[in-house]
Design a protein that fits this description.
Order of helices and strands: HHEHHEHEHEH
Keywords: Oxidoreductase
CATH architecture: 3-Layer(aba) Sandwich
Family: Belongs to the nitroreductase family.
CATH class: Alpha Beta
Radius of gyration: 18 Å
Number of helices: 7
Helix content: 25-40%
Organism: Hymenobacter ruricola
Low-confidence stretches: none
CATH topology: NADH Oxidase
Mean pLDDT: 94
Protein name: Nitroreductase family protein
Strand order of the largest sheet: 1-2-4-3
InterPro entries: Nitroreductase, Nitroreductase-like
Largest sheet: 4 strands, antiparallel
């Protein structure tokens, strides 16, 4: 079932699933079946990557099946994220392999490609009635120590994954963010043809999750 909370209204029509993708803070406790998880991460594997390297790696912890891993990921987060992320059924880490496998040279595009894979994963999740919320508020050092992540691999982001829940269960401030209208910058602010423009200013208020 599609998530129709805060669907984006854009100037040009796009695939409906893209307008439905969002980054919720309210999650249902409903577990995500293993088959569904595999489908979500299989979608990540379909993403493009430099030299076909596929430098993405994912570590996940589920409340139902791997609570110790779940707890390790949760405690790596800033307290402001732990408040709501603890209710998601799945927590994950996206990780970049920083060198090419075919020659061991540095892969300057690894993080870009991990982002592509995770974005693809998030769209597949939305299609299945799930949502992903990616976060920068975490400690890479805590994750590296907790999971023995080796040198040459870098945690890129942490994320929640699960079925959307009731915003009423959130603290007031978070509930306001959950229900606030979502907007995006117009094309004229980020799509340039032929030359770099002289924009007077940029509106950073147009990037709500």
């Amino acid at each position: 079932m599609s998530d129709t909370t805060n669907v984006l209204t854009l100037e040009t029509a796009i695939l409906p699933v893209l307008t439905q993708r969002r980054s919720p803070r309210a999650y249902s406790p409903q577990p995500v079946p293993a088959e569904t998880l595999h489908q979500v991460f299989t979608a990540a594997s379909s993403a493009a990557s430099c030299f076909g390297e596929q430098p993405w790696r994912y570590l996940v912890g589920t409340q139902a099946g791997s609570p110790e891993a779940f707890a390790k990921i949760l405690t790596s987060m800033g307290e402001f994220n732990q408040v709501w992320a603890k209710n998601a059924p799945v927590l994950g880490i996206s990780i970049a392999k920083l060198t090419f496998s075919h020659d061991d040279n540095p892969n300057a595009w690894a993080r870009h490609d991990v982002g592509q894979a995770t974005a693809t994963m998030a769209i597949q999740a939305t299609e299945l009635g799930l949502q992903v919320h990616q976060m920068a508020g975490f400690s890479p050092d805590k994750l590296r120590a907790a999971f023995n992540i080796p040198a040459g691999y870098e945690p890129v982001a942490v994320f929640t994954l699960g079925y959307p829940g009731d915003p009423a269960a959130l603290p007031d401030a978070l509930r306001e963010k959950e229900l606030a209208p979502r907007t995006r910058k117009p094309l004229a602010e980020f799509l340039f043809e032929g030359a770099w423009p002289g924009l007077a200013d940029e509106r950073y208020d147009q990037a709500t999750v």
